[in-house]
Amino acid sequence: MTVLATALAGASDTRALEAGVGVLSRTGAVFTETFGDSSAQLVADGTTWAVAGEEVSASLRAAGVSLAPPLVLPATPTVYASYENVSLIREHLRGSDAVPVVVGSGTLNDLVKLASGELGREYLVVGTAASMDGYAAYGASITKDGFKITQYCPAPAAVVADVSVMADAPQRLTATGLGDLIEKVPAGADWMIADALGVEPIDRGVWDLVQGPLRASLADPAGLAAGDLAAVGRLAEGLLMSGLAMQAHQSSRPASGAGHQFSHLWEMEGLGRDAEPPLSHGMKVGLGTIAMCALYEVVLRRDLGALDVDAAVAAWPTWEQMASRIRGAGLPPEVEVAALAQSEAKYVPASALRSRLTDMVSLWPTLAPLLRAQLLPAADIESRLATVGAVTHPAQIGLDLDRFRTTYWRALTIRSRYTLLDLLLEAGLLSSCVDELFAPGGFWGQRPWPGVAG
Ligand SMILES: [Zn+2]
């Protein structure tokens, strides 16, 4: 994993990273190299403790690290990413100056990341599943007052990722990791569009960290489903690289495009929150990835170089008209407030739109083949996700046709980040492209909802 060393050099928070088969026993050495002679406070839940708790403790003890009694949360029900749990962990940590060592991925890591951040304390994560890119990233996704938000907090100072532990994790966790990672394909295309139009330039070094290893990380879904060490190792590497790239860029842009916005909107609306276990981030992101790759296919069958710019500019709403559309989008009240602010931040008046669309018309013949080379077919994404047992159809997570269909428009309102959705909205093409997806021969038209006539 030599590429990880390059990524580590650019990371703002993470100073040590040990990834590979059997590296759990290196935890003690990583800890003392990073934190000197500090003591350690282990945090786990019943499940992750059973998987790796004793071995991590033994490794720390062997390195001469003194250990506070571990904080082990119950295994069931699944530990929830709530602010109450952050407070519980933070108050426990406050009792000493020990460095937190969290054994877990996903929610547990987010809880300890935010609790440590609030105490101004560094921490170490021992990742137990290749389930998300967040274990090497800053920020934690936490529900506070019933509203899921990403709260800023530093990334872990040290990361241990034992691929043999990750390969033994439940398959749904690997599936959610693949869902989170595969979105980097259309997210890259979104960034290419934003770059070409001068909205947000690509940082080539950071781009390479994510996109360089990406295809190899996604290449073997059957191996992932079988818990193959090489396949899981490559997935873990891709996820770690994405986290480190976000640190280097101080933004999630390198690892998150419109497919993530689908997931964020559903998270804000509480989709699957009460399921046991709760519907994971990566399952929703994977579905958002299929949705966006299908939309890219519709767009790339058209010639945007032939766009009627005058007509698009004439049809462009004023900000007041746009704001009233957003108010009519059926968003929960607190999401609507955020959506208005995010959308206003990226709104351009008609004169600026004219120059942007004029640029797009001249750039399209060059840009379209580059987008084609970046993307994967939606059916290919769908098949890889199906192979690992991930979500591939909205009905599997209780989304009805209308709610899913309108996500193509509502998702773009919640984030100021410029993606294909924004380009299509500005060009006046979003509705017709989405209509094509749901028409009888379109991607979603061929995948009817149960009980809905195809
Ligand atoms: Zn993600």
UniProtKB/TrEMBL annotation:
Keyword presence, Lipid biosynthesis: yes
Domain of life: Bacteria
Gene3D superfamilies in alphabetical order: 3.40.50.1970, Dehydroquinate synthase-like - alpha domain
Organism: Beutenbergia cavernae (strain ATCC BAA-8 / DSM 12333 / CCUG 43141 / JCM 11478 / NBRC 16432 / NCIMB 13614 / HKI 0122)
E.C. numbers: 1.1.1.261
UniProt keyword annotations, A-Z: Cytoplasm, Lipid biosynthesis, Lipid metabolism, Metal-binding, NAD, NADP, Oxidoreductase, Phospholipid biosynthesis, Phospholipid metabolism
Official protein name in the record: Glycerol-1-phosphate dehydrogenase (NAD(P)(+))
GO BP of this protein: phospholipid biosynthetic process
